[in-house]
Amino acid sequence: MVSTQLQKARDFEAQYGPHIPAAERPAFHATPTIGWMNDPNGFSIYQGKCHLFYQYHPYSNEWGPMHWGHLTTEDFIHWERLPAALAPDQPCDAAGCFSGGAVELPDGRHLLMYTGVQRERDEDGFLRDVQTQCVAIGDGLNYEKYPLNPVLTKSDLPEGGSAVDFRDPKVWREQDGTYYAVIGNRTPDDSGAILLYQSKDGLKWDYVRTLDACHNQYGKMWECPDFFPLDDRQVLLTSPQDMYPIGLEFHAGNNALCLLGDYDGEEFHRQAVQAVDYGLDFYAPQTLLAPDGRRIMIAWMQNWATAGAKPAHCRWFGQMTLPRELFVQDGRLCQRPVRELDTCQRQQVLHRNIPVSGEVNLPGVQGRVVDMTVTIRPTGSEVYRWFRIHVAKDGTHDTIIRYRPNESTLKIDRTRSGLPHDIVHTRSFLVRPQGGELKLRIILDRFSVEVFVNDGEQAASSVIYTPQQADAITFEAGGQALIDVEKYDLIV
Ligand code: FRU
What we know:
With 492 residues, the protein is mainly β. It has one helix at 4-16, and strands spanning 35-46, 49-57, 67-73, 79-86, 96-104, 110-121, 127-138, 143-145, 166-173, 179-186, 192-199, 205-213, 222-230, 233-240, 257-263, 268-275, 283-289, 295-300, 316-317, 324-329, 332-337, 345-360, 369-378, 386-393, 398-404, 409-416, 426-430, 438-445, 448-453, 458-463, 472-490.
């Protein structure tokens, strides 16, 4: 049965969503049907098709009572819009259906597991959330909330666990038929932990153990966990709030962390911690296991700190990153764009061994929906001081990717990218040139720049709102550098 609240959201999006012209959206990045989008939810394969749900407030371009929006894709590039899947319409989720995951049941139904939020007054009269875990089961279009919701409450928490910060279940099913879910929680030391639960049927859940805890080392509350084997490692992803920077690896505020370790089926032994993405806009990543064995990740291409900075009167806000294939190399999490993107490459432009000093523009290299790989190296013995790639450029606008070889830093600067807001516009991070060369694959899609360093060693994602006519791409060196450029238009 479709509740009044869900029907209202479906009617609203059906009426107003089509008012947004396709050209005012990214060409191949997922966006909300209308209104606000944050975290990816329920990223899963159901009956052979990829489903992506998302935190959704259709009625404005701001965060509000959370619904689940719904998209599907066959290739991670083209997205089909489905009606909203969940609305806050039950006592246990009256203040919102927060983030969660999805899994296909053996009987062919699709189970969504999400955080139900209720609001209550604390002892000082302030409103606070009470968060529990709920499920809804459906057929890929309509979902019925389980009548016995919530399925996990504060009584299922380990000692000292917070019922205020208990959210974002990511669910999966093991070969032996057991369901597992990882859930973010706040511990008595006021920082985050990731809890593991298990279930025989996806409905009745039991606490198993705490997989890892922050102990105030990497931020505060740990949101949006994911947990999966990858190559010879086990990966725990989480998105901490309120983090202090650590060198150039992590920045202040909301980060996305990858904890790499070993898992013997019981204890998770953390061995390494790294950033998942080094750009300005990346949060709450979630993965799925594709039928061909690829582990594919998608994330909200935004940051909470800057999510108030948006084009005036925009009718959609928030987009997802390009889905990325994950792998482990030299003990690090690496990622590259899904290979399906290659089939959209058109009009190849190749330039080899081009010396650059000062600023140059190369024939055939411009555009805003582009896949471009640039390899930068020194010319003979001369060392260049810096190298800049300018994209989305015209007389007023300019988004700059700057490399300093003597510091091994890459910097994204979107100060002139169409956002007249006093927010963080630059971010620098350390890169690892190989044999003096740095290789950058840059994916542009109307409102974003995603940079993949050295075949996926690192990624950096940032949104831009530069007018589309600003489509120049130029290369500039302080000193002399030699570059190769391979550029394609992306036609989707
Ligand atoms: C992360 C998050 C989640 C929560 C959701 C609410 O961005 O704060 O922890 O479930 O957003 O929209």
